[in-house]
Design a protein that fits this description.
Elements: H1 2-26, H2 68-82, E1 94-95, E2 113-124, E3 127-129, E4 142-143, E5 158-164, H3 170-174, H4 178-185, E6 198-201, E7 208-211, H5 222-232, H6 251-257, H7 275-285, H8 296-307, E8 318-319, E9 332-333, E10 341-343, E11 360-362, H9 384-389, H10 396-403, H11 407-419
Antiparallel strand pairs: 1-4, 2-3, 2-5, 6-7, 8-9, 10-11
Helix pairs in contact: 2-7, 5-7, 8-11
The structure holds heme C (2 copies).
Length: 420
């Protein structure tokens, strides 16, 4: 007992100490003479939101069954998600675009987008080097001042492109218990398919969690992804990621170009929320893609999907756990993914990330496929057919069976996938 008590005391004081450090770090102006506060922003008033009409739901609707207060959070969050950041508001100094919606709009606000971002790194005898000291692993394509413009470092020998994913229904995916995803990974390997769950440390709670968002399942929560996107796509620092990206890793350039005190995202007096929280609210309350009625062709396609082994990875459905939000509590989630990482052979992007090895990719959910072309992590496939043909590694057997289908069966499978 005594040992446990003193150990936890030690842990506690270590925690208190690390908190002091964090406060000291984020408490800028840190002596930087021009550490201005973020400019007060008047964002556009939220567009009105109507609850979805039963049987007539559309892409971009809020979840059915939200309370009036939750609908207001959705509207406010969507306005923040659509808001364009300015340099005075914290944008940059290096960034990829100035709003979330700029890359997430196919079908409706929150959709995928044909935009790709660039990741790089270097393979060394000691393993993969994300070249952080040169601004890696993500390239920011643009800068508030041309002197900050990043380039892919000359010594990078892995350069990969990733396109944005659709965000419809992500609140449901977030509400799937870790244990459910872990149990998917414990199924017996069959047909050459294994699959492993992505173990991450959630930067919001500092707890070990099962990652599920992103092409490598690299984040577990929407708030963590939101904070990550504010920092890495827009250059907006927050309480979760208070440190700015230096242009190609150069601290002098950062000091010269970054004029807004960190963290830049603070509570907006008008809403009482930070931007990272508002955008996370929007994604959490965004309804899943509305399925089309199952035609006879699509029903036949659904059977083929199971028979040729697609459903082993593209698991048709999981169920959420208990949630304080009734619309997310104990709901079916027909996402068509096991949320596991699979060795995709030649299709892998060469970038390891936590549990994910260079060839591992997260099974892409297939719901809403009809509005998210082009396909695959780098958008190389213009059609669903091309996406299936590019499957490799653990998915090779299923792909080969697809190739042997009759033209009519392939059409039925396409009709099914188009209805999800
Ligand atoms: C420059 C384009 C760009 C901008 C701007 C952008 N994103 Fe993304 N988003 C992407 C890409 C690319 C991915 C896939 C990233 C990966 O997995 O490596 C992505 C993935 C995501 C995911 C993971 C979704 C899933 O299916 O698992 C979330 C959540 C997300 N973005 C939220 C946001 C939010 C919130 C903002 C605004 C703060 C934002 N994004 C701004 C390009 C962008
Ligand atoms: C071993 C697991 C596995 C099997 C089996 C599998 N897939 Fe996939 N699928 C994936 C992964 C992983 C991705 C994402 C790969 C990437 O983009 O790099 C993916 C992506 C896709 C995409 C593109 C989705 C998007 O949004 O870009 C489609 C369509 C697809 N799969 C359909 C199928 C069909 C149809 C079958 C059966 C013939 C199948 N898959 C079998 C793992 C699998």
């Amino acid at each position: 007992m005594k040992t446990t008590a003193s150990t936890s005391l030690l842990l506690l004081s270590a925690l208190a100490f690390s908190q002091v450090v964090v406060i000291a770090q984020s408490g800028r102006p840190d002596g930087r003479p021009d550490g201005r506060m973020r400019a007060q922003r008047g964002i556009a008033p939220p567009r009105p939101v109507a609850p979805p009409q039963p049987g007539r739901s559309r892409f971009g609707d809020p979840l059915p069954g939200l309370t009036a207060a939750q609908l207001a959070d959705f509207a406010q969050g969507r306005a923040e998600f659509e808001n364009r950041e300015s340099p005075d508001g914290g944008l940059g100094p290096v960034f990829n675009n100035s709003s979330c919606v700029a890359c997430h709009a196919s079908g409706a606000t929150g959709g995928a987008g044909p935009v790709t971002v660039t990741r790089f790194g270097r393979n060394t005898p000691q393993g993969f080097d994300p070249l952080t000291e040169l601004g890696g692993p993500l390239l920011q394509m643009t800068a508030t001042d041309f002197t900050g413009q990043e380039i892919v470092p000359f010594n990078a020998d892995v350069v990969a492109h990733r396109q944005s994913t659709p965000l419809f229904g992500l609140g449901l995916i977030e509400a799937i218990p870790d244990a459910t995803i872990i149990s998917n990974a414990q199924r017996l390997a069959s047909d050459g398919v294994r699959g492993k769950f992505s173990a991450v440390l959630d930067p919001v709670s500092n707890q070990p969690r099962v990652g599920r968002f992103g092409w490598k399942a690299q984040q577990a929560t929407l708030l963590a992804f939101s904070a990550d996107a504010y920092l890495n796509e827009m250059g907006v620092t927050s309480r979760i990621f208070p440190e700015e990206n230096a242009p190609n890793g150069n601290p002098d350039l950062l000091a010269a170009l970054d004029h807004v005190a960190d963290p830049e995202d603070t509570v907006d007096p008008a809403t009482g929320k930070s931007d990272i929280d508002a955008s996370a609210d929007f994604m959490q309350l965004l309804a899943p893609p509305p399925p089309l009625p199952l035609t006879a062709g699509a029903a036949a396609g659904s059977r083929i999907f199971n028979q040729i082994g697609c459903a082993v990875c593209h698991l048709p459905s999981m169920t959420t756990g208990l949630s304080p939000i009734a619309a997310l509590s104990l709901k079916p989630v027909p996402l068509y993914s096991d949320l596991l990482l699979h060795d995709m052979g030649e299709l892998g992007d060469g970038i390891p990330d936590g549990t994910a090895g260079p060839r591992d990719m997260r099974t892409a959910p297939l719901w809403g496929l009809r509005v998210s072309a082009p396909y695959l992590h780098d958008g190389r496939a213009a059609t669903v057919d091309a996406a299936i043909k590019a499957h490799d590694g653990e998915a090779r057997n299923a792909r080969d069976r697809y190739l042997r289908l009759r033209a009519m069966e392939q059409r039925q499978l396409a009709e099914f996938l188009n209805s999800l």
